[in-house]
What does this fold into?
Amino acid sequence: MVPEIYNVFYFPWEMNFLQTLQSIRTAPLDVIMKCITTMGNMGLLWIGLAIVLAIIPKTRKCGLTMGMAMAITFIIGNLVLKNLLMRGRPCWVDDSVNMLVKIPKDFSFPSGHTMNGVTASLVIFFYNHKAGIAPIILACAIAFSRMYVFVHWPTDIICGAILGAVDAVIAFFVMKKICEAIEKNKNKKNV
It folds into this structure.
């Protein structure tokens, strides 16, 4: 059920862009985009990957940083901004579009799928450039799919990506400082 009270603010170019995407839809592309967008649901792919990386000693720092970054993203993006701005989704504004996914009940801005994907993939990239390329491509595909399936405005995606990138950078540097403090403390004990 769509919330009774929400804000409808978007730039005209955003609806034009989304309608253009709807005009290029094909059955095979619909299947692909539905699959890609589902990969980002609730951030489970990225959370699972962070847990796996945190368990492996060699990648533990990366996994813990991902977890920290996604927690920051969830708090700022999903808990604060979405509920503060209460932006309606495109599918709430134009209900004539044949939906490929269940209509979300939470607010639109910023895109949680995009925030999680960008946050997680950039953290991986910071720790290992080569290993981070595929997750970045997947995060971009998931972000694009959210517009294709008509549940996010382009500015939801753009701002979600910016917020995700900022959170990844913050978490990376916080983790770096934590590790430096731990190392410094170890060295003091060994003296």
